[in-house]
Amino acid sequence: MIKITTTKMAKILRVPTPDEMDERFSEFENTNYGDAYHAALEEGFSVEEAEEKALLFEQKERDREIEKYSSRIVEVFETEALQLDLEVTPLKTRPGEFRLSPRTSWLVSASKMRVAVNGITGFWFQNTREFLDSGPYTACSAVQNHLGYIGELWDLYGYSSPRNRVMA
User: Fold this and answer.
1) In what helix (H) or strand (E) does residue 99 lie, and over which residues does it extend?
2) What is the DSSP letter of 150?
3) Which residue of 3, 113, 152, 154 has the lowest C-beta tally within 10 Å?
4) DSSP letter, residue 125
């Protein structure tokens, strides 16, 4: 089993992390703030209370946007991981952390990773044994040490980049 976070998935996919997107969102003026502020005033709240309610509303909106963005990262990463016969499962006790495990076996996933490495890099491994011996790696550690290639599978297989799919 390999543990992975949403932040690590974002880095592998070469997209901004949820924290980086949160910073970007905070740089833009939220028009919902004004609406929430005026609605609170109309409901009879004081100026200070209206400001507090508007800030709280703005934070909830940002949190909702970050949650949607994080979900897209995980969704795209899951799609990419399937190319390598890998399954992404959330850890129930740790939000934002996941277990990456093979659907069939680590050997099958390592074999698929070898094909990806052969197609993406200048290396050429004749078979999975040669790939594992190059570390030397176990099948699991070969997958773990080459996870960065997940972000480049789109180029190898000719479909839309992770960036386009996450940022959509």
Assistant:
1) strand 97-102
2) G
3) 3
4) -
